[in-house]
Amino acid sequence: MSELAEFAQELDRALDDLGHESGGAFCIVLVDRVEARRLIKAVLTGALDRLYVIQAIDSFIKRIGTASRRLAPRCVLCSKPFRPGKLPTVIAIIAGYIDAPSTGVMAGFCKICARRAGWPVGDWRRGLGAALLPELRHIWPDARLADPMQLCCDMPGRA
User: Fold this and answer.
1) Is 8 among the domain residues?
2) Range of 36's domain?
3) Which residue has the higher pLDDT, 108 or 140?
4) What is the pTM of this model?
5) Could you give the CA distance from residue 97 to residue 113 in angstroms, rounded to a whole number?
Protein backbone atom coordinates (compact mmCIF):
# COMPACT_ATOMS: atom_id res chain seq x y z
CA MET A 1 0.00 0.00 0.00
CA SER A 2 1.34 3.44 -0.88
CA GLU A 3 2.20 6.06 1.73
CA LEU A 4 -0.63 8.26 0.42
CA ALA A 5 -3.19 5.45 0.65
CA GLU A 6 -2.08 4.69 4.22
CA PHE A 7 -2.48 8.36 5.13
CA ALA A 8 -6.01 8.44 3.62
CA GLN A 9 -6.97 5.33 5.61
CA GLU A 10 -5.56 6.88 8.79
CA LEU A 11 -7.65 10.04 8.23
CA ASP A 12 -10.79 7.99 7.58
CA ARG A 13 -10.22 6.00 10.78
CA ALA A 14 -9.68 9.20 12.79
CA LEU A 15 -12.89 10.75 11.46
CA ASP A 16 -14.82 7.55 12.14
CA ASP A 17 -13.45 7.40 15.69
CA LEU A 18 -14.22 11.07 16.25
CA GLY A 19 -17.78 10.60 14.96
CA HIS A 20 -18.47 7.52 17.07
CA GLU A 21 -16.98 9.08 20.17
CA SER A 22 -19.09 12.23 19.97
CA GLY A 23 -22.21 11.09 18.12
CA GLY A 24 -21.14 13.19 15.13
CA ALA A 25 -21.02 16.46 17.08
CA PHE A 26 -17.78 18.40 16.80
CA CYS A 27 -16.20 21.65 17.83
CA ILE A 28 -13.49 23.70 16.17
CA VAL A 29 -10.75 25.47 18.09
CA LEU A 30 -8.63 27.93 16.12
CA VAL A 31 -5.26 28.91 17.52
CA ASP A 32 -2.80 31.50 16.25
CA ARG A 33 0.48 32.47 17.93
CA VAL A 34 -1.19 34.96 20.26
CA GLU A 35 -3.71 32.35 21.41
CA ALA A 36 -0.97 29.70 21.73
CA ARG A 37 1.01 31.95 24.07
CA ARG A 38 -2.13 32.60 26.13
CA LEU A 39 -2.81 28.85 26.36
CA ILE A 40 0.77 28.07 27.40
CA LYS A 41 0.56 30.70 30.17
CA ALA A 42 -2.76 29.23 31.30
CA VAL A 43 -1.30 25.71 31.46
CA LEU A 44 1.75 26.94 33.35
CA THR A 45 -0.51 28.58 35.93
CA GLY A 46 -2.53 25.42 36.47
CA ALA A 47 -5.19 25.27 33.74
CA LEU A 48 -4.33 21.69 32.83
CA ASP A 49 -7.64 21.25 31.01
CA ARG A 50 -6.02 23.26 28.17
CA LEU A 51 -2.98 21.01 27.95
CA TYR A 52 -4.50 18.77 25.25
CA VAL A 53 -4.60 21.76 22.88
CA ILE A 54 -0.90 22.53 23.38
CA GLN A 55 -0.03 18.84 22.97
CA ALA A 56 -2.06 18.59 19.76
CA ILE A 57 -0.38 21.67 18.29
CA ASP A 58 3.06 20.34 19.25
CA SER A 59 2.31 17.01 17.57
CA PHE A 60 1.04 18.74 14.41
CA ILE A 61 4.15 20.93 14.14
CA LYS A 62 6.41 17.91 14.69
CA ARG A 63 4.56 16.09 11.91
CA ILE A 64 5.23 19.02 9.57
CA GLY A 65 8.93 18.68 10.34
CA THR A 66 9.10 14.94 9.74
CA ALA A 67 6.62 14.29 6.92
CA SER A 68 7.79 13.58 3.43
CA ARG A 69 7.29 16.44 0.99
CA ARG A 70 4.40 14.56 -0.63
CA LEU A 71 2.60 13.89 2.66
CA ALA A 72 3.37 17.15 4.43
CA PRO A 73 0.30 18.76 6.00
CA ARG A 74 -1.19 21.39 3.69
CA CYS A 75 -3.30 24.50 4.00
CA VAL A 76 -6.87 23.30 4.28
CA LEU A 77 -8.02 25.94 1.77
CA CYS A 78 -5.30 26.30 -0.90
CA SER A 79 -3.33 23.05 -0.40
CA LYS A 80 -0.01 24.87 -0.02
CA PRO A 81 2.34 22.44 1.81
CA PHE A 82 3.71 23.38 5.21
CA ARG A 83 7.41 22.84 5.86
CA PRO A 84 9.78 23.78 8.66
CA GLY A 85 10.09 27.56 8.45
CA LYS A 86 6.74 27.77 6.61
CA LEU A 87 4.37 26.78 9.42
CA PRO A 88 0.62 27.43 9.52
CA THR A 89 -0.45 30.89 10.64
CA VAL A 90 -3.55 29.42 12.30
CA ILE A 91 -4.07 25.82 13.39
CA ALA A 92 -7.52 24.27 13.63
CA ILE A 93 -8.29 21.47 16.05
CA ILE A 94 -11.46 19.62 15.13
CA ALA A 95 -12.52 17.38 18.00
CA GLY A 96 -15.58 15.64 19.31
CA TYR A 97 -17.78 17.88 21.42
CA ILE A 98 -17.32 15.90 24.62
CA ASP A 99 -15.52 16.44 27.92
CA ALA A 100 -12.30 14.62 27.07
CA PRO A 101 -11.91 13.96 23.35
CA SER A 102 -9.45 11.17 22.60
CA THR A 103 -9.41 11.78 18.85
CA GLY A 104 -9.12 14.93 16.80
CA VAL A 105 -8.17 16.15 13.37
CA MET A 106 -5.70 18.94 12.83
CA ALA A 107 -5.66 21.39 9.95
CA GLY A 108 -3.71 24.52 9.18
CA PHE A 109 -4.23 27.78 7.34
CA CYS A 110 -1.40 29.51 5.48
CA LYS A 111 -0.93 33.24 6.03
CA ILE A 112 -2.57 34.18 2.71
CA CYS A 113 -5.73 32.14 3.36
CA ALA A 114 -5.89 33.25 7.00
CA ARG A 115 -5.71 36.90 5.93
CA ARG A 116 -8.40 36.38 3.27
CA ALA A 117 -10.68 35.15 6.05
CA GLY A 118 -9.97 38.22 8.19
CA TRP A 119 -7.08 37.17 10.43
CA PRO A 120 -5.79 38.79 12.64
CA VAL A 121 -8.44 41.48 13.13
CA GLY A 122 -12.03 41.50 14.25
CA ASP A 123 -13.92 38.24 14.44
CA TRP A 124 -11.32 36.30 12.43
CA ARG A 125 -12.29 32.98 14.03
CA ARG A 126 -15.76 33.22 12.50
CA GLY A 127 -14.25 33.94 9.08
CA LEU A 128 -11.87 30.99 9.26
CA GLY A 129 -14.55 28.74 10.71
CA ALA A 130 -16.91 29.64 7.90
CA ALA A 131 -14.15 28.88 5.37
CA LEU A 132 -13.33 25.55 7.04
CA LEU A 133 -16.87 24.18 7.35
CA PRO A 134 -17.41 23.41 3.63
CA GLU A 135 -14.04 21.60 3.51
CA LEU A 136 -14.93 19.62 6.61
CA ARG A 137 -18.37 18.73 5.26
CA HIS A 138 -16.74 17.50 2.05
CA ILE A 139 -14.83 14.79 3.92
CA TRP A 140 -17.28 14.30 6.82
CA PRO A 141 -20.81 14.96 5.49
CA ASP A 142 -22.70 13.62 8.53
CA ALA A 143 -20.89 15.78 11.06
CA ARG A 144 -22.64 18.61 12.83
CA LEU A 145 -21.23 21.60 14.62
CA ALA A 146 -22.24 21.12 18.24
CA ASP A 147 -22.98 24.75 18.95
CA PRO A 148 -22.87 27.30 16.13
CA MET A 149 -22.52 30.08 18.70
CA GLN A 150 -19.24 28.46 19.81
CA LEU A 151 -17.82 28.34 16.27
CA CYS A 152 -14.17 29.02 16.84
CA CYS A 153 -14.84 31.50 19.61
CA ASP A 154 -11.97 30.58 21.91
CA MET A 155 -12.34 27.26 23.70
CA PRO A 156 -15.69 25.55 24.10
CA GLY A 157 -16.91 25.56 27.67
CA ARG A 158 -16.22 21.87 28.10
CA ALA A 159 -12.57 21.97 27.16
Assistant:
1) yes
2) 3-142
3) 108
4) 0.80
5) 26
